[in-house]
Task: structure prediction
Amino acid sequence: MPLKSVFRPPIVGAFLAAAAVATVLATVVQTQFNLAQITAMGVDVPVALRLRTTGQDLLGFSRTMAPIALCILLLALPVATWIARRHGHRYLWCSLAGGLGFYAAIAAVDALAPMPTLIAATRGSLGMLSMALAMAVGGAVFAFATRRLGNGVAS
Amino acid sequence: MSATAATAAPSTSYRVETIAEGLDRPWSIAFLPDGRALVSESPGRLRLVVDGALQPTPVAGLPSGLYLDKHDGPMDIAVDPRFNENGFIYLSHAYGTDAANNIRVIRARLTGNRVEDVRTLFEALPLKRTRSNAGGRLAFLSDETLLLTIGDAFIQREQAQNPANHLGKTLRLTRDGKAPPDNPFVGKAGTTPEIYTLGHRNAQGITVVDGVAWISEHGARGGDELNRLKSGANYGWPLVTQGVDYTWARVSPFTGLPGMEPPVVNWTPSIAPAGLMHYTGTMFPAWRGDFLVPMLAGKRVQRVRIGADGAVSQEVLFADLDARIRDMRQAPDGALWLLTAGRGARLLRVVPAAP
Result:
């Protein structure tokens, strides 16, 4: 599609909303997995401390998560939209773009970065799946926000 | 106690001499009672330094195929307190494969420029699928038991709290690689008898002062520590840390917990402590009794003074070298020997500047 149709304000807004939702959800999810490891070692984490830690991660870990979410969605959503124009199921494809994009991104980063795992919460398959689902929700937000736009964005 | 060192003119002027250049990823310096020194290189080589000159031929007799081929070949070197009687040296190195490895300790008898009677004393478990946070430093306590640091393997940080394996621990071994009967967990169900302390991330510095072991250890983003070891104590990682993960994620909500030993010094932001020594020489009287902590990322040495009241004062040294520093030891004459990191590394001798 022509570039200027991609960078219309509603699409940019939808994209930023998707990235923001994905970042917040994925951050909250990863905090709970890290805290689960703490409680599994026999130390209680009271609700207030859980909330505070989640807040700290929303301020801190989001610095890592937001660029990851932006890059994944920037690469994957155009592909998902292109497929949806031909085959429909826009929500499905946009969600898959976020979720599978996260899997691919983490696999690539873990293979290339000096440390064996960038995000501790993705060490287990349940943590990886949960964060991928958060990214999928971000993709679905984009599909929802662009549902009435033309020029090939809508199905 | 958290402290950030101010950068200022060094408290003592010094001069740096180059003993050797072109070393391949060296890891450790160890002085023998007769004044010779050993330097380990990662491709599985030991080099002797005699009368201040690096010997061109590596020490012979080390078995080939002992070492993994990327780094962490021979890592640390410890010299037996009774070396003059038995000639024993001890080496830690990574064993296994990139997909399944940990640290092994071997013992050998050094005779001239060769080793004999090489035997495996101890192999840390479990085998892990990463080379990160391996630990691997060795030091003899005054009771002639040998301490070995083992890291948390990065991806298994919670294991540092699990007394059933060696990850994230310091271990105490006999000359033969066994657990001494007075180790703190001997005879306790579900524990590993070699454990001396637990709750460590990656200790790459160890020294013994008046019979007490001290370690420097890497945190993640912040939370680097200088710890005074007490038999059986838990140093908290990853339940307790004053740093965060590399991603800025909280590793734990706790910076302290009952039953967990706090660090004597916490370095946040990180200094990446690669070693640890305690200066007792006469060449630099102003530094007597101080800890010296060589740094990799920081490209300098942190001088740490712990006062009688526990107050910590610090100073940055050797930033002018602009080199990642892997190890640092006190020579018998009181000079400081520094080993830079990586390929083409240098062995340096630091002495007071001429008056």
In short: DSSP finds one helix and 24 strands in chain B. The first strand of chain B starts at residue 14 and ends at 24. The interface with chain A takes residues 129-130, 132, 154-155, 157-158, 161, 238-239, 244-254, 257 of chain B (CB under 8 Å). Residues 83-86 of chain B form the longest helix (4 residues).
